[in-house]
Amino acid sequence: MDKPKHINEYIAGFTPEVQKLLEQVRQTVQKTAPDAEESISYGMPAFKLNGNLVYFAAFTNHIGFYALPSGNEAFQKEISNYKTGKGSIQFPFDKPLPLDLIAKIVKFRVEENIQKSGLKKKK
């Protein structure tokens, strides 16, 4: 299979149940960061706004959500019930997606990127 060039192509490659979950994540990010640009990066759906914002992807048993290490560090308590990596969170298919938490993380990343881009302009 060719690598997807757009998020729609990526989502279309999964079962209807997984497509629904991926769309929920996508819509949550779009609603929270309406100016963010969609892309495919590292073979995953990605959003960019003043730099990399968040990524997400489907796997065998979970949706992976990637808010970079800073997103995980800022929400350690909230994500403690999920399997995590340095910059990743795994939302298992057998539990409802925490869309409110995803929105909070995206909002945090938007603010973080705005601050970082402001610092770069001042230098």
From TrEMBL:
Which superkingdom heads the taxonomic lineage of this protein's source?
Bacteria
Report the SUPFAM superfamilies cross-referenced here.
Answer: YdhG-like
Q: List each copy of the YdhG-like domain by range.
A: 19-110
Recorded protein name is Iron chaperone
What is any Pfam family matched here?
DUF1801
